[in-house]
Write a structure and sequence with these properties.
With 141 residues, this protein is mainly beta. It has one domain: Jelly Rolls (Sandwich). 8% of the residues lie in helices and 46% in strands. It has 2 helices and 9 strands; from the N terminus they run αββββββαβββ. Strands 1, 3, 6, 7 and 9 form a 5-stranded antiparallel beta sheet that branches. The protein is elongated, with a radius of gyration of 17 Å.
């Protein structure tokens, strides 16, 4: 059996200890919540649901939606990477849930934005209609 330490614990245990980012250890979690009511929104459309400040570190994105239409998908990212947080995921079921911590991309978990950044949901597969609610959980300390 081995005993190992993560990067931040290693830094804190060093002599002298190394300061770690407060966004990664003991940071205050914030949330950006939004709702969009789609009405015959064509595939390939994007919906801006959050504006994160410079330095925001994203830890989760949660999307709850109506049955948006047969063959429809949603993905979540930003202008630089349209699926940074969640790759295209079916949005056909009523009361559907798409959650970054379950369905997401490893590179998006703990991603620190270097500038003010909009979080964008991109639709695909079919025209959609219905309610989409989103919450982006991040730290910025």
């Amino acid at each position: 059996m081995s005993s190992v330490k993560g990067t931040n614990i290693t830094a804190m245990d060093a002599t002298p200890s190394t300061k770690v980012k407060s966004a990664q250890v003991h940071g205050r979690m914030r949330v950006a919540f939004d709702t969009y009511e789609a009405s015959s929104l064509v595939a390939g459309s994007d919906i801006t649901v959050a504006r994160l400040p410079k330095g925001a570190t994203v830890y989760d994105v949660v999307i709850i939606h109506d049955a948006l239409g047969a063959s429809s998908t949603l993905k979540v990212g930003d202008a630089s990477d349209d699926d940074r947080y969640i790759t295209a995921t079916a949005s056909t079921a009523a009361n559907g849930k798409i959650i970054m911590s379950e369905d997401g991309v490893i590179g998006g978990f703990g991603y620190e934005n270097t500038a003010q950044t909009d979080v964008i949901i991109t639709t695909a597969g079919a025209t959609i209609s219905g309610t989409i609610k989103s919450a982006v959980y991040y730290t910025v300390d």
